[in-house]
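Hi,

I'm pasting everything inline rather than attaching a file, because the server keeps stripping attachments. The sequence lines come first, and each chain or strand is labelled.
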Amino acid sequence: MRQSLLHRIDLWARSLVPFALAVLLVVLSLSPVRLPGFGAIAPWLPLIAVYFWSAHRPDLLPVWAVFLLGVFCDLATGGPLGVSSVTLMLAQVAVKSQRRHLLPQPFIVQWSFFAVFAVLAEVVLLALNALAASTLIDARPAVFQALSTIAAYPLFAWLFSQAQRSLLRVH
Amino acid sequence: MRLATPLKAWAQRFLFLLLVAAAFALMLLGKADIALIDRARTAVQDGLAPLLDGLSKPIATVNGLIDYASELASLQAENEALRQKNQELLAWEAIARETAAENERLRALLNFVPDAAVGHRSARVIGDQGGAFVRSILVAAGTLDGVRRGQAAMTGEGMVGRVVSVGKRSARVLLLTDLNSRVPVLVGEARHRAMLVGDNSALPDLMYLDDGARLAVGDYVVTSGIGGVFPQGLPIGRVAAVEDGVAEVAPFVDWAHLEVIRLVDYGLPGLIEEDGEASEGIPTP
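And the predicted assembly:
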């Protein structure tokens, strides 16, 4: 009985890893690096997290967790509330629908898929931000952010797959 | 207890739609500037502040080392340039002292009502601009340190932005370049009134200019003090380009080296209250 309770807590704690990692990345991306203009073109890390986990372990990042991640992201960065949530949830639905075709592919194909998702997500982000501010927004930072997010994908995908291997294999 | 698969899928879809609707509702609520959302923002800000504070220290050290190394190379040339600059500034200082003394005499003659006293508070920058669509920073000072909403944020070079939300230990400064930034300014020697409006680019625009105002590239832009939130005459930047009636301003601030900023404690009493709601303009007792 005692053992199984501990076991359950252990499983539960492990199942929190994807969400906790994503939150941690949002916090890290806020720390001031003081490179001129870097803040505006820094990769949008939550998208990488949502893409990776929705493809590999969708059970560990349910839709409400993605919603909360988006809200936290908006509160922490000071952006318009709700924008990240909508974008991330749409990305999640899109990835889940393509999951079966995506998973057996080699890494380079998964990365290319991610590139497409990142561009689409950035378009949605731009549109929602423009809507929230009710003006047109310069699209160039969004383009750079899409590119830097795509470039950052391999590193973070590797990080997540390490986490998956070491912490989540007991499933 | 296992739900039938179609039922489960249906519930999932329903939850998804519900959450998307909730997110859109949040977007609307966020626009309405509701106190609850402001409180949520400041709570997250305050929670992150100690963490970011810890993170920013080693980063500042590394940055300092890099700056030190790159400055070593150009030390001699820079010394020469500074010596020259110093000579020029000494001449300006004499002029400034003379003008200040004269100003004082003239004010005394006219029984001029003096400006409210201006105090300063310095705070470390602990959080960078988050993402492609927001231009704001977090600083490690809050209501406990006397920071209030609406205060102007400065560096030695010029104005950075203004405080938009304050937690107990942290505050968010909206930069001049942000889409939502509006600062009333005076332009050039003729002191044309205008509004400095951010557009997320490095060069904010001048809008609502006086009719017939003639601007030239290089004109100084300072705060006008209209509205009573900022003191008059805080330096902001220079006009960088004038094209088809649209003037762009290049701020003096070095955005890459925002490490410590000064928060200007001015604000006529009662104009902006602690929770950010404007009163009727009558100072509350």
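Chain B touches chain A through 56 residues (CB under 8 Å).

If the labels don't parse on your end, tell me and I'll reformat.
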